[in-house]
Amino acid sequence: xxxxxxMIKGREFANCNCSYGxxxxxxxxxxxxxxxxxxxxxxxQGFHGSTKLDDLRxxxxxxxxxxxxxxxxxxxxxxxxxxxxxQRGVLLxxxxxxxxxxxxxxxxxxxxxQVDIAERKARLVVPGITEGRGEPxxxxxxxxxxRVRIDMVGGFExxxxxxxxxxxxxxxxxxxxxxxxxxxxxxxxxCQSGIVR
Length: 197
Known about the structure:
Order of helices and strands: EEEEEHEEEEEEEEEEE
Largest sheet: 14 strands, mixed
Strand content: over 45%
Helix content: under 10%
Structural class: mainly beta
């Protein structure tokens, strides 16, 4: 199955513990030395070989003791309970990375996920596991929504992301809480070779 072609196209909301600018996006070290993040994905169109992945959702929870590229992290994957056995298997193949030192057993659960990239708003809930929301950054003087984007030339996850802020609490299998920290809202279009351009 290693040569099987796959593609997922959809939207994501990511919330990590870094400050609004997230130095990791610029090859810097995490704001506070470690990395904790939750990412929700809505697949609009997707496949792995002959297995369709349209309209499925998944969530990843990560924790690294230092920068991501230094490894030694742990990850948990939550897959939409609506996925068939075949869809679950291929999503796990796509999602799980080779550099993760500890991968928790997958969880199959209902996922509530709404994201409006242009408005920098999101809501992500997996009952009993994680709950988060994303909002625009507000101007501290006027209170107006502040718009910032990252145009990632040669990136591996997205080409253009709207930046906001987020709040997320996870209760299992990796427990942490993020408060008014980096939020990322992006269109994704990925395949076995990276970003589909």
